[in-house]
């Protein structure tokens, strides 16, 4: 599941010297699509770790990864886990949006 405008934002605003997190995320999506849930979880964890190290824990990229993890949790029946993870992702998105508003006002 792509997040729509968030995905476009990631592609235009976030640039990193290493996009390894992106290929790990795509591999996770592919594994998830093939119902290889344990493999997908490993790819997402690696993507999260890579993005966190390169971009920081509050970077908007982290929210995209967390949304994918939440989708995986739902697919495996862990609805409560999915809700908690989506909450974390939404907090990052809200904080990012607020920081952009502050930048525009300055």
How does this structure look, described?
Helix 4 packs antiparallel against helix 5 (79-105). The N and C termini lie far apart (35 Å). With 106 residues, this protein is mainly α. The chain contains 5 helices and no strands. It is globular, with a radius of gyration of 14 Å. 80% of the residues lie in helices and 0% in strands. The longest helix is centred in the last third of the chain and has 27 residues, at 79-105. The chain has helices at 5-13, 20-33, 37-55, 60-75, 79-105.
Distance between the termini: 35 Å
What is the H-and-E element order?
HHHHH
Query: Helical amount among residues, as a percent range?
Result: over 70%
- The total of beta strands comes to 0
- What profile does the largest beta sheet have? none
> Roughly what fraction of the amino acids lie in strands?
under 5%
Low-confidence stretches: 1-17
Class by alpha and beta content: mainly alpha
In terms of topology, how is this protein built?
Elements: H1 5-13, H2 20-33, H3 37-55, H4 60-75, H5 79-105
